[in-house]
Amino acid sequence: MEYVKPRIEDSFSDSPVVKPVKKADLKSNGMHLPEIDRTTKMYIGGKQARPDGGYSVVINDTNGRYVGEVSKGNRKDIRNAVEAAHANNKWGSMTGHSRAQVLYYIAENLAIRKDEFANRLVQMTNQSHADAVQEVELSIERIYTYAALADKYDGHVHHTIHRNVTLAMPEAIGVMGVICPDESPLLGFISTVIPAITMGNNVIVIPSEKSPFSATDFYQILETSDVPAGTVNIVTGGKDELAQVLAKHDDVDGIWYFGTKKGCKDMEFLSADNMKRTWVNYGKYRDWSDKTQGEGQIFLRHASQIKNIWIPYGA
Amino acid sequence: MKVNTMKSNKNSTQQLLRNDGIPFDASLFEEININRSAVERRASTLSGRRSVKKQWQAAWLLKAISCIDLTTLAGDDTPSNVQRLCAKAKSPVRLDILEAMGMQDENIHVGAVCVYHNFIKEAVKGLQGSSIPVAAVSTGFPAGNIPLKERIRQIEISVTAGAKEIDIVVSRDLIIQSDWKTLYNEVAACRKACGDAHMKTILATGEISTYTKVAKASWVSMMAGSDFIKTSTGKEPVNATLPVSLVMIRTIREYYELTGYKVGFKPAGGISKAKQAVNWLVLIKEELGNDWLTPDLFRFGASSLLGDIERQLEHFVTGRYSAAFRHPMA
User: Which of A69, A148, B144, B175 is placed for a possible disulfide with B169 were both Cys, Cβ 3.0 to 4.6 Å?
Assistant: First the structure.
């Protein structure tokens, strides 16, 4: 079955858009391996949480060299994350203006740790340092963009055939699953998570499976930026396995998926049971560093639902 | 997806010997000294263990439902809220879920409905046609700081209005001042006023500073003829915890060994998750045995617990995590 699709999707790539990779070279690999082994935890309900199963996954860089280990999440971790997201009623009830202040704060806190995040990107993806710095800078800029829109993405007043003032107001969807693209580990994470929370949703995020450390490093930014616990919950591990649990969860109201064509089909199929909102990429890949593809109000549109209020007038 | 019924759990048909109390004897509890770190260690091993899973988990959760005192004790209670609660008490789980488990003919309902005095009549009406008793909180709930005479009067009015179970609160000041004899007299007077209605004595452990005093207060309450001892009103800053429950349960065991009377136990307040409910059932099974795992001797005081259990049961049946709005409101 074919859907009507926005024309811009024709400009998307058929394969993931990645920065050129440099050959293995110990010296240029940004950072040396950390001396103390640290397996990252997951981030659930504002706390760093150990995985329910107790397993971890080894992560290698694009040249196959060991980078570190992340927690291997399972369905129980997704369940806990959804519970934590529902328990947070602070974020959604804040005004758009207050949410904007928190988002600006996130951007500021990321800005002062620019080098650290750039080095991490080099370490995981073997791209050039200049490209990595550019990805972090674009990420900061993107957070600013959505922060500015947080209290300016207004609804409409519609003309209707009857005597009504009809207000169309965007509201948060509720609890959303966000499955991030594998490419652009930081920018892909920011470009999907930030617009979703800008509209007041609480999200369960599955970050890049191949390069998850930008997301796990981001816990500390979230912790220091007044983001209420449960707003962003991050579960690392097998992308499609976790995504399917989210799609099958009846208490998740919306789901975004950026990945393979097969994954997209699964998301739509499994979400049908409770009719959760889906937004998937149908196997087409955005260039996240291109503003026309990687940001815009379309993201906010998919992170909100319209409530129409019909107000009759005249006595 | 079938859940087997355990016949051994259904032997509560034999009449339970009601606790008539024993004369006050301070020597039975004066020497008690609770080892707090040992209590905390024992309690923490229970919830830290791998829990029951699959059909066994579902069976434990159904057992938990039968032990719930479905409670509404809020300032904004209304007659229609209470009626809705009663409907839920009679039919706590969606029929299709019960059918999927083969439990539709097991007459699953909660242990009791617990309301403020004003709503006893409403609750009795709402529970018509079922065997579910109405429990009422009495004696100046939750603080209990009114004269004894008025407390007695309240109990009498509640019993007349149709309450089959009375939850009383004790005077915390007597416990804090270790005035055990007066406490005994007060609880015994309340028990007398209850008549045939079962009496649950709330110790409000969140307002008692030490486990030693909790144990002594439990002893005094049982000596004075309580049918149940209950942890909390649900209105204290700290409500039911596993360690405090362990302390109370051990006194129940000792009292049983001494007198032959089985006194019931009711944790209340803050138990809102299915997992917690299973932890408490495990505690009871390990400390008191299967005899106590019946609504006659064990109850949860809870309001939102049932909703969480329903979600877990639906997950057991369908394999999909459930949402609260998929189940009728309590």
Answer: B144
Low-confidence winner among A153-162, A258-267, B132-141, B280-289 (lowest mean pLDDT): A153-162
Interface test with A, best of B321, B322, B325 (most A CBs within 10 A): B321
Segments making up each domain of chain A, as ranges: 42-49+69-312
Dist. CA A222–CA A117, nearest whole Å: 14
- The alpha-carbon radius of gyration of chain A (Å, integer) is 20
Please report residues of A whose CB lies closer than 8 A to that of B326: 250
Note if B167 is an active site residue.
Answer: yes
Cβ proximity of A252 and B325 under 8 Å: no
CB A256 within 8 A of CB A280: yes
Q: Please state, rounded to an integer, the average pLDDT across all residues of chain A.
A: 93
Q: What is the pLDDT of residue A36?
A: 76
Catalytic residue selected from B213, B230, B262, B296: B230
Output the pLDDT for position B44. 92
Assess whether B230 carries a catalytic annotation: yes
B171 in reach of chain A (CB within 8 A)? no
Question: Torsion angle of alpha carbons A135, A137, A139, A143, nearest 10°?
Answer: -170
**For chain B, which residues make up each domain, given as ranges?**
21-326
The pLDDT score that the predictor gives to residue A2 is: 65
Q: How confident is the model at residue A126 (pLDDT cuts 50, 70, 90)?
A: very high
Cα–Cα distance for residue pair B59/B293, rounded to 1 Å: 13
Q: Which residues of chain B have pLDDT under 70?
A: 1-14
Please tell me the predicted confidence (pLDDT) of residue A173: 97
At A211, the pLDDT band (50, 70, 90 cuts) reads: very high
Contact A250 B319 (CB under 8 A): no
Whose structure tokens read 């429990």? B135
Give the pLDDT score at B4. Answer: 58
- B121: annotated active-site residue: no
Give the residue-averaged pLDDT of A166-187.
96
- Please report, as a single letter, which amino acid is at residue B147: P
Using the Cα atoms of residue B121, residue B122, residue B123 and residue B124 in order, give the sign of their dihedral.
Answer: positive
Give the type of residue at A283.
G
Cα–Cα distance between B279 and B233 in angstroms, integer? 20
pLDDT value of residue B47: 79
- C-alpha distances (whole Å) from B54 to each of B242, B280, B315 are 24, 18, 10
**Residue B272: CA atoms inside 13 Å, Cβ hemisphere, count?**
9
**Interface ipTM:** 0.83
- Domain topology for B21-326: TIM Barrel (3.20.20)
Neighbours of B185 (CB within 10 A): 16
CA dihedral over B247, B253, B258, B262, signed as positive or negative = positive
For the record, the structure tokens of B6 come out as: 């355990």
How many angstroms from the chain centroid is the CA of residue B30?
27
CATH of domain A42-49+69-312: 3.40.605.10
* Under 8 Å between Cβ of A125 and A18: yes
Instruction: Pick the closest to residue B115 from B126, B100, B131 (CA basis).
Output: B126
Residue type at A245?
A: V
Element (H, E) at A278: strand A277-280
